[in-house]
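Subject: design request, 358 residues
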């Protein structure tokens, strides 16, 4: 089974703005040969569906833009109508805000803030972070995920480079330091990349993922746990994402490392590394790499697009997921036409979670 997926964002996109836009986008994706969509449901401290968890904790039921609607429910209906599977994407994960000093989440729950060695609010690449190692914070994020898994007819749920994750500069808040001290009779080292300190924190996140996996499949054994982390080993060094352990311990059913390179040669190098160093032949069917289709003014060239898909298949990789939908529509649907007349000319087989669970 090929995985032909695409991310749907709220940023730089109007897909979720109306039921009509959603229906039109699903038609377009089905006609282009896709079989699974990953719509964002959690970013900027708000959900894209009416959330009781958010209402009870923060008094905000849904993103104000979607008040009175349920874009996720609408998208599921429209996707099913044209044979597309839906895996909701928890984009912000443990990040609380972007360039907003912690935003509304940390204004209400300052004790949830992640801290660096100097005790400052943890910030990396513009994102401010909750402490992903804190059991209360973990409980909160898990309850959001389980809420979607329980209440919506979806094929699975998805985390990314922020779930489960924490910039490796973090973990210096009082509770975490105390926990480390009890175990090792010393304070955490000043160097955030110290090997033991790094691995200790990464293991806490792996344990969280273990629990997440168990609780999701307790709701429905056929639900997929999908992850789109940064490429390994960078993911471990920078974001405490020990994706090697995740794969080896079968904590993910399908994984989409974000191989966001802007030329084919760099992309190929990353694929070669995955295939030779990270994944066994048995694990390859779980791999559907993330490919950067568009960001800002960049758009992938038709040549690179075709080469990447062909190279994936030649390596035994049965799929890919593109970031993000609007790249298909630019220039009068130029890239969609490339897919339709080339690598996705044959209709996609139905996206079957049971097939991936095997």
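Subject: RE: design request

Done. Sequence follows.
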């Amino acid at each position: 089974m090929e995985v032909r997926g695409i991310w749907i964002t709220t940023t730089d996109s109007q897909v979720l703005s109306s039921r009509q836009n959603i229906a039109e986008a699903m038609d377009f994706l089905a006609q282009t040969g896709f079989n699974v969509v990953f719509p964002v449901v959690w970013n900027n401290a708000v959900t894209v569906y009416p959330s009781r968890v958010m209402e009870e904790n923060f008094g905000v039921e849904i993103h104000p833009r979607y008040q009175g609607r349920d874009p996720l429910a609408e998208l599921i209906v429209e996707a099913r109508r044209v044979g597309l599977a839906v895996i909701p994407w928890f984009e912000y994960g443990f990040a609380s805000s972007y360039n907003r000093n912690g935003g509304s989440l940390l204004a209400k729950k300052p004790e949830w803030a992640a801290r660096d060695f100097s005790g400052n609010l943890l910030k990396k690449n513009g994102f401010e972070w909750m402490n992903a190692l804190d059991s209360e914070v973990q409980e909160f994020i898990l309850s959001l995920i389980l809420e979607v898994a329980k209440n919506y007819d979806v094929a699975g749920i998805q985390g990314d480079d922020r779930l489960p994750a924490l910039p490796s500069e973090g973990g210096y808040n009082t509770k975490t330091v105390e926990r480390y001290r009890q175990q090792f009779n010393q304070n955490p080292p000043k160097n955030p990349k110290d090997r033991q300190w790094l691995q200790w924190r990464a293991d806490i996140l792996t344990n969280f993922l273990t629990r997440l996996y168990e609780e999701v499949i307790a709701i429905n054994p056929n639900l997929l746990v999908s992850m789109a982390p940064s490429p390994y080993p960078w993911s471990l060094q920078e974001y405490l994402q020990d994706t090697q352990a995740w794969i080896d311990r079968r904590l993910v059913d399908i994984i989409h490392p974000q191989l966001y390179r802007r030329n084919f040669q760099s992309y190929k190098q990353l694929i070669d590394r995955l295939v030779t160093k990270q994944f066994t032949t048995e694990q390859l069917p779980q791999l559907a790499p993330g490919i950067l289709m568009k960001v800002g003014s960049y758009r992938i060239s038709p040549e690179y697009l075709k080469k990447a898909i062909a190279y994936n298949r030649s390596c035994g990789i049965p799929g890919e997921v593109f970031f993000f939908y609007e790249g298909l529509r630019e220039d009068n649907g130029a890239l969609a036409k490339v897919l339709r007349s080339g690598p996705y000319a044959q209709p996609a087989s139905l996206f079957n979670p049971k097939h991936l669970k095997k």
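The longest strand covers residues 3-8.
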